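Hey team,

Filing this mostly as a record. A colleague (T.K.) asked me to run one chain through the structure pipeline before their review meeting, and I want the input and output archived in the tracker in case anyone asks later how it was produced. No errors, nothing strange. Just documentation.

Input sequence:
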Amino acid sequence: MTSSVKHFLLLPIYCWLTSCQFQPLKAKNLNLGERFVSAYNQHDAEQMLSLTHDNIKYMFINTDQIFTETESKSELIQFLKGYFSSHPQAKSRVIESKRHGSFINQIEQALWTDKSGQEKSQCSLSVYELRNELIINVWYFNAYNCPK
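Output structure:
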């Protein structure tokens, strides 16, 4: 067994014995899509806007139809403020994120609590298009039950 494999296998035992904790990735290590979701989780609409192009379009794809929710920063901030106000516990988790040229595709898990206090979640594929390292288009595809 090689030395690096031994270290990898011993790491969980070491952590258990020393109570080590894994730190989340620092914001500078996250891609633009992950940073957008991080700002979303803080309900920081201004931070989200700082990552977007002036002509940001926020769209939802439902089977064969595309619904454009916003077509500019001013429309997006109005939408987000209303959404955060009516969904104060809304959060999202990036399950997977990959950048391909000027596109980032992510699997995101939306998390919320319904009116009866029941925790809910659903997953969706999101695609972010970048222009000059700013998000210009966001497409959210049909939601589905997240894999267990």
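Quick notes for T.K.: The chain has one domain: 26-140. Residues 26-140 form a domain with the Nuclear Transport Factor 2; Chain: A, fold (CATH 3.10.450.50).
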